[in-house]
Inverse folding.
C-alpha cells in the first residue's frame, strides 16, 4: 500500500500536552486571588486599572504586530499577563491614562521592539512600571490605604522618610489608619500597589505555579532567602522586609519570568541571590524606598552572562582512557 | 529484594501506552509468500549478494556477505526462488539493494542449520563466530553488528556485559514479552556473551513497569552468581546505552567515546535470545518479535515475524488499518522512523510497527521559544537544547560545537517536552551533521 496521506517527519513522533498557552493560563490563574483581593481592598478603581492595563497591553501587541505584518499572537496570553502584572504594581489611585501609557510602553518598548515573545531581555511589565515611576513619580507614589481610601504612605516609605530602623514594626509603624502588624502585611490590609498587599495570596499563587511546574522554586527561595538573611545580618527585621512592599509579587511572578531568567537551575539560584542582594541594598541604602523593580531589571541584564558561564554538567565529561 | 530503582539524571515521562499489547502472548505471524531481504540491515558496509536471480534458496541460507569488518551477513527467511535483486524501499529510509525471494511454502532447512553444541564446550572465539555467522545485530533498533561489539581492540579492557531490557520507548512490548515468555534464552544469551569476552559481571536491566518480566528473568537467572537482574526507573531514555551504563555501573562513557571505553558492552535482550537460539538450533537471525500497535491498527499484537515480510502483510494480520492513519513508524514513537509506504520489509532492527491516527500526532504550530528551560532539565546528556537549536537555525557551527552538540544522543526528550512545540532535536541533528562534516574536511586538509 502506497499511502499518499502518511505524515513523514523525523522523530520524536509524540509531544507532551504542555503548551505555551497553558503555561500563560496557569500564571493568570495564579494571579487571580491577588487580583480579586485588590478589588476587595481598593474597590472598583483597582478593577478599572487592571482592565485598562490588560486591554491596552493586548491592543498594543495586536497593533504592533499588525503594523509589522506579523501574525497576531494575542491569544497566547502573554500580553494579558504583562498587562495584569503591570496593573498589580500600580497604586490604586493612578489616573487610568497613565496605566494605559505604562502598558503600551511595556509591550512596545519592553517586548515588541526586541521581536516579541521570547526575545525580550527585560520583564516587560517591569519596563512599563520603570517608565511610569520615572515619568510620574508623584502619582506613582501616592498611596491610598485599603478599605477606607485615605491617602497614606507605604510601610517601606515611612521607614525611609522617618529613618526608622525597623526594630519593632509592630509598635512603630502606625500611621493614618495603616496597621503594621505581620498579620496585616500577611493578609494584605496595607497601603501599597494593587498586588503588593496580600503576601498570603501571592504565596498561594506562587505555590500553584511551582506545583504546576511553571516556575522553578529555586528563584523565589533564593531571592526571599537572601533578603531574609541579609536584612537579619544588617540588623533589620527580616519578616517585615519579606512581607512588605512588592517582594512577594516580584519573587513569585516577576523574577520567575521564564524569558528573562537563566536557563539552568544553578543559574536561577545565582539570579535569585543577586536580586535579593540588590533589593536589600536599594531598600536600606538607596534613594527609593522599594527596590524590587530595579533588583529584577538589573538581574535581567545579567541573565545572558549567567547563561554563558553556568552550564549543566555534561555526561561523559571525563577523560577518555 | 526491594532496591531503589536505578536511573540517570534528566529524562522525560511520556505516557507508556503499553497496555494494549503488554499482556498479549507472542504469536507466530503467517509465513509470507514473498520476502524482501535488504542486503543492509546493520550499521556498516552493505552485503554482497551470494545468490543470483533464479537460484533456489533454503531457509537459513546465507544470501549476503558483508564487504567490510563492520557488517553482518543476511540469510533467507524462507525456502524458495530468488525472483529479483534490486533496490527496494527500506524502513531506515531510501532505497537499498534487496534480495526478493518467492517462498515455496516448504521451509526446507539449509544444511548449515544444525545445533552447534553446549555453551560449556564453546570457546570465546567460537561464540564470536556464531554471532557473526548468525548475522546478529543490535535488535533494539540500532542494528550495530554484535560480533564487532564483542571484538574490542586489545587495549580496551571489558569487565561488564549489560543486557538492555529497559524498553523505555512507549508502546513497544516486544522485549517485554520475550522476557516473560523466554527468559531462559535471555539468560543463556548473556552467559554466552560474558563468555565471549571472558567477564564475570553481567547485568540484566529492566524497567520497573514490567514486574512480570523482572520476576521471570530473575527466576531464570537464579543460581547464576555473576548475573544481576536490576530494576530501573521507568523513565525515557532509560534504555539509551549511556544512561543504562550510568544507572547500572555508575560509570560514564567518556564524551566522544564508546561503551567499551568504560569497560562495558551493552546488548538488547532480543539479541541475547537470538544468540541463544543460534547456539541451540544453529538458526541464524531470520525472524524477530515485532510489536504492532497504536491507535491506527485494529488488533494490536506481538508477532514473531520473518525478516523480509512487508509491513503491509504484518498489518493485515493485525486486522488492518483504522481510518485516518497519520503515521506509520518503524520502532517507537520517540526514536522510530516514519515510513512513507507499507511496502518496506521487517528487518533485524524492526522492534515495532507503530501506527498512529492523525489526531495523535500532536501536530501543532511552532511558537517562539519562551526559554522555559524544560529542554535543559530534560536533556539526559546535560546539553542546552534551546541554545543548540538557535545555533542550528543560524548555522553557527563553531558555537554549536563548543556547546557539545555532537554529544547529543538524539533521544528527542527536548522536542517532546517543549511547550512551544519547537523541533529541537530535529534541528540539532542538522547542526551535528554540519559539525561532523567540517571535522572530516579538517581531517582531509
Amino acid at each position: 500500500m502506497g499511502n499518499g496521506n502518511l505524515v513523514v517527519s523525523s522523530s520524536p513522533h509524540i509531544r507532551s500536552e504542555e503548551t505555551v498557552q497553558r503555561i500563560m493560563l496557569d500564571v493568570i490563574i495564579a494571579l487571580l486571588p491577588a487580583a480579586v483581593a485588590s478589588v476587595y481592598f481598593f474597590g472598583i478603581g483597582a478593577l478599572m486599572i487592571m482592565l485598562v492595563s490588560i486591554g491596552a497591553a493586548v491592543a498594543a501587541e495586536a497593533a504592533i504586530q499588525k503594523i509589522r505584518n506579523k501574525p497576531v499572537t494575542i491569544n497566547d496570553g502573554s500580553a494579558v499577563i504583562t498587562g495584569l502584572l503591570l496593573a498589580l504594581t500600580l497604586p490604586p489611585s493612578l489616573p487610568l491614562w497613565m496605566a494605559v501609557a505604562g502598558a503600551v510602553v511595556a509591550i512596545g518598548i519592553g517586548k515588541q521592539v526586541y521581536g516579541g515573545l521570547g526575545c525580550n531581555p527585560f520583564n516587560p511589565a517591569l519596563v512599563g512600571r520603570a517608565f511610569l515611576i520615572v515619568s510620574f513619580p508623584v502619582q506613582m507614589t501616592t498611596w491610598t490605604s485599603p478599605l477606607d481610601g485615605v491617602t497614606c504612605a507605604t510601610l517601606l516609605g515611612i521607614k525611609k522618610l522617618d529613618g526608622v530602623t525597623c526594630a519593632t514594626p509592630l509598635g512603630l509603624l502606625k500611621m493614618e489608619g495603616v496597621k503594621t502588624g505581620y498579620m496585616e502585611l500577611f493578609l494584605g490590609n496595607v497601603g501599597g500597589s494593587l498586588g503588593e498587599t496580600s503576601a498570603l495570596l501571592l504565596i498561594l499563587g506562587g505555590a500553584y505555579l511551582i506545583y504546576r511546574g511553571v516556575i522553578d522554586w529555586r528563584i523565589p527561595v533564593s531571592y526571599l532567602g537572601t533578603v531574609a538573611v541579609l536584612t537579619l545580618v544588617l540588623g533589620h527585621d527580616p519578616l517585615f522586609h519579606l512581607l512588605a512592599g512588592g517582594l512577594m509579587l516580584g519573587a513569585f511572578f516577576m523574577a520567575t519570568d521564564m524569558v528573562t531568567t537563566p536557563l539552568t537551575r544553578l543559574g536561577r539560584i545565582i539570579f535569585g541571590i543577586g536580586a535579593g542582594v540588590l533589593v536589600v541594598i536599594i531598600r536600606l541604602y538607596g534613594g527609593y524606598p522599594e527596590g524590587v523593580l530595579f533588583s529584577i531589571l538589573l538581574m535581567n541584564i545579567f541573565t545572558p552572562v549567567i547563561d554563558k558561564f553556568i552550564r549543566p554538567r555534561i555526561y561523559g565529561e571525563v577523560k577518555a582512557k | 529484594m526491594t532496591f531503589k530503582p536505578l536511573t540517570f539524571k534528566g529524562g522525560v515521562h511520556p505516557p507508556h501506552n503499553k497496555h494494549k499489547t503488554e499482556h498479549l502472548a507472542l504469536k507466530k505471524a503467517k509465513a509470507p509468500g514473498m520476502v524482501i531481504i535488504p542486503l543492509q540491515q546493520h550499521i556498516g558496509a552493505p552485503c554482497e549478494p551470494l545468490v543470483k536471480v533464479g537460484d533456489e534458496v533454503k531457509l537459513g541460507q546465507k544470501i549476503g556477505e558483508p564487504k567490510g569488518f563492520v557488517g553482518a551477513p543476511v540469510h533467507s527467511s524462507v525456502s524458495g526462488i530468488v525472483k529479483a535483486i534490486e533496490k527496494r524501499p527500506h524502513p531506515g529510509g531510501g532505497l537499498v539493494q534487496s534480495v526478493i525471494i518467492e517462498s515455496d511454502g516448504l521451509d526446507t532447512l539449509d544444511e548449515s542449520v544444525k545445533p552447534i553444541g553446549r555453551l560449556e564446550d564453546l570457546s570465546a572465539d567460537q561464540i564470536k563466530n556464531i554471532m557473526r555467522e548468525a548475522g546478529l545485530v543490535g535488535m533494539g533498533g540500532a542494528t550495530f553488528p554484535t560480533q564487532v561489539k564483542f571484538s574490542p581492540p586489545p587495549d580496551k579492557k571489558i569487565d561488564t556485559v549489560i543486557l538492555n531490557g529497559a524498553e523505555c520507548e512507549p508502546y513497544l512490548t516486544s522485549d517485554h514479552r520475550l522476557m516473560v515468555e523466554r527468559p531462559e534464552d535471555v539468560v543463556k544469551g548473556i552467559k554466552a556473551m560474558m563468555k565471549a569476552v571472558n567477564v564475570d559481571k553481567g547485568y540484566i536491566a529492566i524497567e520497573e513497569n514490567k514486574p512480570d518480566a523482572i520476576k521471570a528473568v530473575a527466576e531464570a537467572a537464579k543460581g547464576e552468581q555473576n548475573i544481576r537482574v536490576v530494576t530501573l526507573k521507568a523513565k525515557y531514555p532509560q534504555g539509551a546505552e549511556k544512561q543504562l551504563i550510568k544507572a547500572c555501573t555508575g560509570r560514564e562513557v567518556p564524551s566522544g567515546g564508546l561503551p567499551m571505553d568504560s569497560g562495558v558492552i551493552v546488548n538488547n535482550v532480543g539479541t541475547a535470545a537470538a544468540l541463544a537460539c543460534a547456539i541451540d538450533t544453529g538458526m541464524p537471525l531470520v525472524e524477530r518479535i515485532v510489536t504492532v500497535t497504536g491507535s491506527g491498527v485494529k488488533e494490536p499484537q506481538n508477532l514473531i515475524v520473518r525478516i523480509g515480510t512487508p509491513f503491509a502483510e504484518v498489518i493485515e494480520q493485525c486486522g488492518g488499518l483504522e481510518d485516518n492513519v497519520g503515521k506509520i513508524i518503524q520502532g517507537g514513537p520517540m526514536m522510530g522512523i516514519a515510513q512513507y509506504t507499507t511496502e518496506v520489509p521487517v528487518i533485524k532492527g524492526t522492534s515495532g510497527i507503530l501506527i498512529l491516527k492523525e489526531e495523535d500526532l500532536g501536530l501543532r504550530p511552532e511558537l517562539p521559544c519562551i526559554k522555559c528551560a524544560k529542554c535543559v532539565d530534560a536533556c539526559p546528556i546535560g546539553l542546552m537544547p534551546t541554545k543548540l537549536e538557535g545555533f542550528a537555525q543560524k548555522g553557527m557551527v563553531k558555537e554549536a560545537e563548543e556547546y557539545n552538540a555532537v554529544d547529543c544522543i538524539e533521544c528527542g526528550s527536548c522536542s517532546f517536552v517543549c511547550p512551544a512545540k519547537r523541533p529541537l532535536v530535529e534541528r540539532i541533528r542538522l547542526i551535528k551533521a554540519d559539525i561532523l562534516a567540517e571535522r572530516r574536511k579538517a581531517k582531509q586538509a
